[in-house]
Write a structure and sequence with these properties.
This protein is α/β, with parallel strands linked by helices. The chain contains eleven helices and twelve strands. It has two domains: about 140 residues, Rossmann fold (3-Layer(aba) Sandwich); about 160 residues, Rossmann fold, CATH 3.40.50.2000. The mean pLDDT is about 90.
Length: about 325
């Protein structure tokens, strides 16, 4: 398994595969050490050379092992030369790719030729290119979450500020909540690059944080909030990890991703789709409505089910089928 390490999710997937009885050897697709981070900005060619060497080192370490499955989570970072070497080294293995990013953000189509199975979280990408649709999941820590909600009008957000538009949406919602006596707790992780973009647009940002949220703080926000605010990146049609963590955790969801209305798990008592960004008038009444089936935990969207789909090379029904574009 060669995967982009991200907030512990790839390690959790590897552990789930082990629980299914597989021997798993996990490698980081793209090292995040300080040298590599610096080279990516200051010397892209040297960064790519070091990355190619890193991939060659993985192949050298694993060559000769009779793997049944060579699983990539993301693939655009690997060179064609190294992919060809991997295919030669593991001639009897099934090569599978899972992407939790959209083609609009990272184009991996030129690497599709090396895979027997391609699964993506983005239903539009799956529909256009004949890939399997496999949405994200809720890790075990977000299943059967204790309910410590004392105030129905309580919402939280945890995520990265990837662009000024996302910050503006969160700031507008924060102001709306303050005006309507809604408790809104948020953790907005922001990189120096995005901070500079905010400054260039003369946005005086407040409440930004460095790095990932502490796990204990995240759990507290999840357990004590009635709903999550999910502002999706418009460059993708797939759902964020937050959607499934809160779906399986029994929380209400406020989102701007209209596609979710086509999903089998959608119900208006549990999920509110905002008519337009900045139009939050329906939020207070939505928070007051009880969830009709509060014990439902949506087992099809757990990490356990996700791991089975990876090993079986299967996916979910695609809500994009039959949609006019």
């Amino acid at each position: 398994m060669i995967a982009l390490h991200y907030h512990g999710y790839t390690e959790a997937i590897a552990e789930e595969l082990r629980l299914l009885g597989h021997e798993v050897r996990l490698h980081d697709l793209q090292p995040r050490d300080l040298v590599m981070r610096a080279l990516r900005v200051t010397a892209p060619k040297l960064w790519q050379a070091r990355l190619n060497k890193h991939h060659s080192t993985i192949l050298k370490a694993e060559r000769g092992w009779a793997a049944d499955l060579v699983l990539f989570i993301q693939a655009h970072q690997m060179s064609h030369t190294n992919f060809e070497r991997f295919r030669i080294a593991f001639p009897s293995a099934r090569f599978a790719l899972y992407n939790w990013d959209s083609l609009a953000n990272h184009d991996y189509l030129d690497k599709a030729q090396y895979f027997d199975t391609i699964q993506t979280f983005d239903p539009d990408d799956a529909e256009r290119h004949g890939f399997l649709y496999l949405p994200l999941f809720a890790s075990r820590q977000f299943q059967d979450v204790p309910n410590r909600v004392k105030n129905r009008r309580s919402v939280y957000f945890v995520g990265n500020i990837v662009n000024p538009k996302r910050y503006t949406a969160l700031d507008n919602f924060r102001r709306f909540c303050a005006d309507h006596e809604i408790s809104f707790r948020l953790y907005m992780a922001c990189t120096p690059v995005v901070r500079r973009k905010l400054a260039r647009q003369k946005i005086s940002a407040s409440g930004l944080a460095h790095g990932s949220i502490d796990v204990a703080e995240f759990r507290d926000m999840l357990e004590t909030s009635h709903a999550v605010f999910d502002f999706a990146n418009h460059a993708q049609s797939g759902y964020t990890m937050r959607i499934f963590e809160n779906l399986c955790g029994g929380k209400k969801i406020i989102t701007n991703n209209r596609r979710i209305e086509r999903e089998t798990f959608f119900s208006p008592d549990r999920i509110l789709v905002l008519p337009n960004d900045g139009q939050y008038e329906s939020v207070p009444d939505f928070l007051d409505i009880p969830i009709e089936h509060p014990q439902e935990r949506f087992s099809h969207y757990t990490i356990q089910a996700f791991a089975v789909h990876l090993t079986d090379g299967t996916g979910h029904d695609n809500p994009s089928h039959g949609v006019e574009r």
